[in-house]
Design goal:
Blueprint: H1 2-41, H2 46-60, E1 65-71, H3 76-83, E2 94-97, H4 101-107, E3 114-117, H5 118-121, E4 136-144, E5 147-156, H6 169-196, E6 204-205, H7 206-223, E7 227-234, H8 237-244, H9 246-262, E8 269-274, E9 277-283, H10 287-303, E10 306-307, E11 313-314, E12 318-326, H11 338-353, E13 360-367, E14 378-379
Parallel strand pairs: 1-2, 6-8, 12-13
Antiparallel strand pairs: 1-5, 3-4, 4-5, 7-9, 7-12, 8-9, 10-11, 13-14
Helix pairs in contact: 1-2, 1-6, 8-9, 9-10
């Protein structure tokens, strides 16, 4: 009898130890999930969100592999990531699909996590072709307000890791949290770009330009580097709108913007100033360099014929005015109004347009400490 009692006590102790171990594992999982949740909710950019999912989710859930599949019918997501320096080629676990209807077709409208054997549960389009397929998966839908944003797929080499009958509380909650984060982040990215980007041409807008030119002039004062400003106007643009309509006019604006952008360095700034006018900031560019870049822009626009119908092409040209900010002494606290630099470039543009158009004219330099004082003027 004593032996049976001792055996029962040992069995009870073992059972209690097992329960305590499970509680400790659940507490550890809850803490790791809470930390991941707080981290995701604190992020602002899409790039940061994607990077944290790839790294932290894999670590928090002790995964061998995962894939993040996002619906990108408009191409905005790939644009947002590229603009923030995220290289999709270096992140094979991120899958962007233009087929938004694919999620509804494969997952329906249910937000229920799908668990089980990868051969049964995993949709081929939701896993990178070059990545080894896992043995079992958890497919977590990302749905917000009835809209499919994508899905997150957890993969394990252990067939029993994600079984169809296992509890999915943590994964269900992660899907809901991540859906909110994804929606908020995409809205933020759209808002950020709509306030700083020109939606028609895809380049920066005037507001962004006016912020950056002041920052770049202050940088020049600290470093002593020159800074060139280009003021660019499409010649006879009103005639384009009057002859072919505003739709062709919009296409022409996008075409010219792309030509101009292609001649700039990664740290140069191009913005649409208004109407058919563009401005560019060229940090560390002296007057000669500024006029050289402007001339390359002018030549490229001139030779880049824009087809508008099967039988008709549009020939465009631009006139460009150049001004250059020259710092007489690095570290100087002298201030120059940004309007001075813009005004000199604008006057040079006026000269270019009234001396035949399709020209580059330099208005000379603006010296630090002297209001819009120009030293030279040249025409190309």
């Amino acid at each position: 009898m004593d032996t049976d009692l001792a055996t029962e006590v040992r069995m009870l102790e073992s059972h209690i130890d097992g329960m305590i171990a499970r509680v400790q594992r659940n507490e550890d999982m809850l803490k790791r999930f809470h930390d991941l949740e707080m981290q995701l909710l604190s992020l602002n950019s899409l790039k940061e969100l994607v990077e944290n999912i790839l790294d932290d989710a894999k670590s928090a859930f002790n995964l061998q592999s995962l894939s993040l599949v996002l619906a990108d019918g408009s191409g905005d997501i790939s644009t947002f990531l590229a603009e923030d320096g995220f290289c999709l080629q270096d992140a094979p676990s991120v899958v962007l699909t233009p087929s938004v209807g694919l999620f509804k077709a494969k997952l329906g409208l249910s937000q229920r996590v799908l668990l089980g054997d990868a051969a049964t549960v995993l949709v081929p389009e939701f896993w990178p072709a070059e990545q080894k397929r896992p043995a079992s998966v958890a497919l977590i839908p990302l749905i917000r307000r009835g809209v499919h944003l994508g899905c997150l797929v957890f993969g394990s080499d252990d067939k029993s890791r994600f079984e169809a009958n296992m509890s999915s509380y943590f994964l269900d909650r992660l899907g809901k949290v991540l859906s909110v984060c994804m929606e908020n982040t995409l809205n933020y990215e759209q808002l950020r770009r709509s306030s700083l980007f020109d939606t028609l041409t895809g380049v920066n807008n005037r507001r962004f330009f006016e912020q950056r030119i002041e920052e770049e002039m202050l940088r020049s004062l600290r470093t002593g580097d020159d800074l060139s400003c280009l003021f660019i106007d499409i010649d006879f643009f009103k005639k384009v709108n009057d002859t072919y309509g505003h739709q062709v006019g919009d296409t022409a604006l996008r075409h010219v913007a792309e030509c101009l952008r292609s001649q700039l360095r990664s740290n140069d700034i191009l913005a649409r100033y208004g109407g058919e006018e563009f401005v560019a900031i060229l940090p560390t560019a002296a007057e000669q360099k500024g006029t050289e870049v402007a001339e390359r822009m002018r030549k490229l626009v001139e030779r880049s014929i824009l087809p508008i119908t099967d039988n008709e092409q549009l020939e465009l040209t631009v006139s460009i005015g150049v001004s250059t900010f020259v710092v007489e002494q690095a570290g100087s606290s002298s201030s120059v109004e940004k309007t001075d630099l813009i005004e000199v470039a604008d006057k040079a543009l006026y000269q270019a347009k009234h001396s035949g158009r399709n020209k580059v004219v330099s208005g000379g330099v603006v010296l630090s400490g002297l209001s819009a004082k120009t030293k030279s003027s040249a025409s190309i």
